[in-house]
Amino acid sequence: KWIAARPLDRLGVARNDTRERLFFFNLLSSFCNVIIRIMTKRCAITAVSILCAPVLVFASFDRNLYFGMTNDPDVRTLQEFLQEQMVYEGPVTGNFLTLTRDGVRRFQEREEITPASGYFGPVTRAHTNALMHENGEVLVDAQAEERVATIAFLRGRIAELERQIVELRVRIEQETAAAPTEAVSPPVQTPESIGTTTAEITPTEKATSTTASAARFDGMTLGGTATMQFPAATGPFKVGDITLTNGTARPVLLSQIRTTVNDTMNSTRNRGRKTFFTVRDGTQDSDVMISRNAYTFNSNAPIYGPNVGELNISYPVSFTAGETRTSGVWLEDFEYVESGTLEIVFSSFSASDAVAASGTFRFILTRQ
């Protein structure tokens, strides 16, 4: 239904729509792969259950049960079995009294066990154990067959999705090749041209300059640099601002920003300590919080070089075409640092579409 609501124009260029479909198919294919891994693991567990069925799965009776027994766990299991066999309507109490004896007698009559006296002896026990074992095996086998069939179906679906993904990739390449290009290359700005006033630029030059600015980078541009001293007092403090600009002509939804943490701190209080990096939609601590991300520092002090870790920042923020946003980053639950340096550097990000990245951000905290 989702695909049918978004038909492609075969006569024109529909790069964004095609990318949306490619992303959808990739997402669905990944989801099916996850389901297969789960179902495969469950089938492996089922196989172990089948092999170990006499020990792990099925109950069995190894002693005789008779009228007058009270508070007995085997009698309780017998009553549950008789209920499943529709020959006992009493409560499960563990007491072998009149209702239980009548239930055993009805079971013996139905299964043609003689004499049908209500005594749960060797013959009735053997027959009951065989029946429970047989029913249990049928149940497990049916579940295993169903899961194997499900995995086969999902594998077929993934093969079909991969085929459609290949077709969509080919189509994107064709559409990109068929897209019209500018006949005139945008001029490169020089230091002299930067100082030109608006009055000196003709309308044609204005249009060319605008085109050059828009085509500067088709992706997400990142920026942000801050260097500061470690605070003398504990408590939340700001480490810097991240600025992101969507240079594409389409909306972009980010999901995560990945950073590298280089730690050369001399701080026993922070060794093995769990801290939190809080990101806000703005530069003030009163702005709306986007995410609060835990990071635990290495418990060992750096000796031959920095302790290197990865901080994954949850960043579910949508950017319209050309939009710029600035987000502040705060550090919480952080203790005093005697000396050394802490550096947080951008490494990559995840987005809903294949978007290139330009620029970086780097936050440095230090004390000599």
Structure, explained:
The protein is of the alpha+beta class. It is 38% helix and 24% strand. It has helices at residues 15-51, 53-56, 73-84, 98-110, 122-178, 191-194, 203-214, and strands spanning 219-223, 225-229, 237-246, 252-263, 274-280, 289-296, 307-314, 318-319, 324-332, 340-351, 356-359, 362-367. The strands form 2 sheets. Strands 6-5-9-3-1-11 form a 6-stranded mixed beta sheet, with no helix packed on it. Strands 2, 4, 7, 8, 10 and 12 form a 6-stranded mixed beta sheet that branches. Helix 1 packs antiparallel against helix 5 (122-178). Residues 9-14, 50-57 and 192-214 have low confidence and may be disordered.
Gap between N and C termini: 62 Å
Question: Over the alpha carbons, how many angstroms does the gyration radius reach?
Answer: 35 Å
| Topology, number of strands | 12
Major sheet characteristics? 6 strands, mixed
Which shape, going by the Cα principal axes?
elongated
Task: Output the structural class.
Answer: alpha+beta
Can you give the mean pLDDT?
Answer: 80
Low-confidence stretches: 9-14, 50-57, 192-214
